[in-house]
Amino acid sequence: MASTSSQTPSSSAPNSTPRWDVFLSFRGLDTRHNFTSHLYAALDRHGVGTFKDDPELRSGEVISDALLMAIRKSRSYIVVFSENYASSPWCLDELVEINNCRETFSRLVVPVFYNIDPKDVRHQTGSFKDAFKKHEIRFSGDVEKVNKWRLALTEVANLSGKHVSENR
């Protein structure tokens, strides 16, 4: 989910299209005002051009072309999985595009499991199972979309990542 950093995005030439160093994907409800804001500030302090969500970028429930372009123009991704990540179709659409870029362009994706067991993400158990029950009803006419979300969650959660809890 995404807003522009105060950092100027990196680019290979002065007139080329900006390319973000990192795109942060996270569920704002869970982590915007704690873990993700601290991570963003640390990246910014180190001069890392970071794209982070801004609620004003959202218009409706369909992921915007501008956000998809930001994902495609990013060199790497940090996906902060949290309890309610899978409840957001927006987050899941981001994740599918991030995973496509990982596969197509060999881009780095670092999963962070914030107060969530990685196996809940991989196997869609716990809160992820509950979220998918709702998605299966809501998107019953688009089984392919739900299956893409499941596959992206499994593939990204299988990558080497970090497990973080509030008390660490």
TrEMBL record:
Gene3D superfamilies with a match to the protein in the record: Toll/interleukin-1 receptor homology (TIR) domain
Domain of life of the native organism: Eukaryota
Alphabetical GO biological process terms: signal transduction
Keywords: NAD
Domain TIR as annotated: residue spans: 18-168
SMART domains: TIR
Pfam families: TIR (PF01582)
Protein known as: TIR domain-containing protein
Organism field: Daucus carota subsp. sativus (Carrot)
